[in-house]
């Protein structure tokens, strides 16, 4: 929300060299702040029984869990849209829709700004459903997968809309709405993972889902380069992204079932601990 308009201003008024320099300076500052103030939390130490903390499961069983694999698929689809937007949204606005370089700063940040609201609202809604005794399958699995699938549907619809305003609206929805899975996915994985192994599983989940960032920019670049016009290439690229998201969201809705998986993986004692 802040970085894209700021970097666009640097690009317009200075050069792309300075844009990389600014990113490097900000990154070093963040590392320094993390080293100075970052600490491990103590929530598990105060809230979790020692028996549950000591429980361990074979990694093979957890990595083959349908719920965990489904959360990866949904997160992969969302990350595909995010990485594609980070790399190609500006080019889409300029070469596809005809906006000038100096006029895309705020438009480029629109998906990120919308995602802030969506993540907070989606997390609040999911937690509220759990507090009303709605199952985690519905409050997290179905809800998170549906957000990813709906974002994919928006991107599939975008090429057929007649005006630039509608196209921007659909790309904003397509990128922002699936961001709900960024908070729901880790919660689903944590729900069925022993505390002692939770960090490792969350790291693996992040690695799998963010691998979309290696593919999405390349796929979009390839189709834009080979298309008859830039807009035709962008339309096809967004369509591919929509299909990936639709598939990932559908898998998430169908297979994310935390309660059943907790019972299957660790028995009823661990399930009762998670519900407590």
Description:
With 276 residues, the protein is mainly alpha-helical. The protein folds into 2 domains: 1-33; 58-275, MFS general substrate transporter like domains (Growth Hormone, Chain: A). Helix content is 82%, strand content 0%. It has 14 helices and no strands. It has helices at residues 3-13, 16-37, 43-47, 50-54, 59-63, 66-96, 105-131, 136-157, 164-176, 181-191, 195-210, 212-226, 230-255, 258-275. α6 runs parallel beside α11 (195-210). It is globular. Residues 45-54 and 268-273 have low confidence and may be disordered.
Write a brief caption for the model.
With 276 residues, the chain is mainly alpha-helical.
How many extended strands? 0
Shape label = globular
What is the alpha-carbon Rg in Å?
21 Å
Q: Overall mean pLDDT score?
A: 84
Determine the CATH topology of the largest domain. Answer: Growth Hormone, Chain: A
Number of helices: 14
Outline the biggest β-sheet.
none
One letter per element, helices H and strands E, the order comes to HHHHHHHHHHHHHH
As a percent range, the share of strand residues is under 5%
Q: Specify the CATH homologous superfamily of the largest domain.
A: MFS general substrate transporter like domains
Key traits:
14 helices, Growth Hormone, Chain: A, mainly alpha, single chain, 0% strand, 82% helix, globular, 2 domains, 276 residues
Layout of strands and helices, then pairs:
Elements: H1 3-13, H2 16-37, H3 43-47, H4 50-54, H5 59-63, H6 66-96, H7 105-131, H8 136-157, H9 164-176, H10 181-191, H11 195-210, H12 212-226, H13 230-255, H14 258-275
Helix pairs in contact: 1-2, 1-7, 6-7, 6-8, 6-9, 6-10, 6-11, 6-12, 6-13, 7-8, 7-9, 8-9, 8-10, 8-13, 12-13
